Amino acid sequence: MANDASYFAGLDIGGTTVKAVLVNQLAEQVGPLAEVRSLVKNGYEATFGQLDNALDQLATGAGIARSAIAGIGLDVPAPSSDGVIWGRANLGEDWVGTDIRGKLAARTGVPVHMTNDGNAAALGEYALRPAHSGSLLLVAPGTGLGGGFVLPGGSGFEGANGLALEVGHISVPFREDDGELPLCSCGLKGCLEAWVSLVALRRRLRLELAKPEWADHALNAGDTPVEEKAFKLREFAEQGDPLAVQIFKQQGFVLGYCIADMVRSLDPGLVVIGGGLAETSFRDLYMTWIQEGFIERAWPVYRHSPLDPDQVTTRFEWAIGGDAAAAIGMAYTALERFSIG
Known about the structure:
Oligomer: single chain
CATH architecture of the largest domain: 2-Layer Sandwich
Number of domains: 2
Number of helices: 9
Strand content: 15-25%
CATH class of the largest domain: Alpha Beta
């Protein structure tokens, strides 16, 4: 069993599970992905116990001693700065205002770097593209809408207080059929997340099913809650259902429109679209809708070089890291920050 301290762990704390990855000093993943329940609602001490379980699984899977882990990258599903969580999100109350990074470092005896889950996923997508040396913007529709920005060379941009790239809460100039701005889960109106997220799909589906034109739609049958019906939208869209396609098309267009403003601010060169839609059979269509919105809003220079019309200045790609992206990003970050080789 190897005992040299030359391995680095990435721990991705989600609302339900912790995903964990281990890499060596050559940036190679060793052993399988580990996954345990997160228990975040039970407080950070309960989750720390689960992190211990994940680290033990990583060590066992790689055939190393636990003491060979020299550094940890940790991401949390909440805004944080300098290791301290600023907002509760879906966590237990005792997470807020606590030096999570410091407490975990003291518990494990190894240094810890901490960021939020959006930044971590962006770092993972960057690490999985070794040929890419420019910057990278990740936008990931899910239950909400997350994102992250990686600078050339692989450093994540977090802002002065760890609060940068809250992309879901950019204001967008779109309104409901009645002229009202949709209410976002953050309490504000007109946020991008209120248009592009699972929560937004539920609202949009409820509004559409109330219209006479969809009275006979299959999703109008029965008393199933709209929350459950929304989960079926992907399947319907994959079958070409007009209602599902219409909803996703609107979502993709709004997302692309707003990405144009993000690109105008950041000029990343590469935009990566994450989230579960990356796994669907209609993802190429969805990317087309994103680019239609982008073209509507973006200046020509952000689409093609004025010197060479064939040179694309903003490329779009689907995420390739899947559910492991954030854990991979934090493992690579730990390697870069804590390796002494």
